[in-house]
Amino acid sequence: MLVSENEEALTWPGFPALLRLRELRLVTSVLPVLNTSPGLRIQWQHRMDTLRHGDTTTHCSTYQ
Questions:
Q1: Burial label, 51 (beta-carbon count in 10 A; 0-12, 13-18, 19+)
Q2: Do 50 and 17 meet the contact criterion of CB atoms below 8 Å apart?
Q3: DSSP class of residue 1?
Q4: What's the CA gap between 39 and 31, in Å, rounded?
Q5: pLDDT of 23 over the 60 cut
Q6: Could you give the percent of the chain with pLDDT greater than 90?
Q7: CB proximity list for 16: less than 8 A, separation 6 or greater
Q8: How far apart are CA 36 and CA 1, in angstroms?
Q9: 10 contacts: CB under 8 Å, gap ≥ 6
Q10: H-helix or E-strand containing 19?
Q11: Which residue has the higher pLDDT, 30 or 4?
Q12: Of all helices (H) and strands (E), which one includes residue 42?
């Protein structure tokens, strides 16, 4: 990410896209083991729903 010395990374226009890419990576990283735990599936569904709806205000917990 190229950000000038005087520009905060959080205000960089491309920052929201990087956040969505990060969330996509987190959502897809558990696909191979998704059916091993009902709790994991619930957390995954919550993350997937927020990603689909472009929800940037909801905080997700780490996968357990």
A1: middle
A2: no
A3: -
A4: 14
A5: yes
A6: 48
A7: 56
A8: 36
A9: none
A10: helix 15-29
A11: 30
A12: helix 38-52
What single letter denotes the amino acid at residue 57? T
Stretch 8-34: mean pLDDT: 89
Structure tokens that stand for 9 in this block: 């990374």
* Calpha distance 61→21 (Å, rounded): 17
3-state helix, strand, coil in the chain (%, to 5): 60, 0, 40
CA dist., res. 4 & res. 11, Å (int): 11
Number of residues in the chain: 64
Instruction: State residue 62's pLDDT score.
Output: 83
Asked if residue 59 lies in contact with residue 45, where contact means CB atoms within 8 angstroms, the answer is no
